[in-house]
Structures are given as structure tokens and as C-alpha cells.
Amino acid sequence: MKYIRLILRLITVSLYVFLVVFGSGFVGSSTANAINLETLNLNYSLIAKDSAVYALCATGATL
Hints:
Layout: H1 2-35, H2 44-62
Helix pairs in contact: 1-2
């Protein structure tokens, strides 16, 4: 039971780290591009992919 709680806690923490880093990276990239007046040419799939890769790296580093 002790190990199951530890594993669930690690999964919860890693999911939280992933979502926070992904969200902040996505919003930051979108805002930076909008400030540069590229609002009509935003490629959200590319921004999301880059943010997801960065979030996976940050989650792995945290664990």
C-alpha cells in the first residue's frame, strides 16, 4: 500500500508539472508571437508540439 501511494503521488506530481510547463510555454509562445504582430499566421500545432516537448523534458528533470 505504501508503494502504491508513492507511485500515485509521483504520477500526480509529474502530471501537474507537465500541465503547468505546457500551459505556460503555450501561452508564452502565443503571446510573444501576438506581440510581434503575427496574429494571423500563428501555427498553434507547432507551438503545442514545442511546448509539449519542453514540458516532457521538464517533467523528466523534475522526477
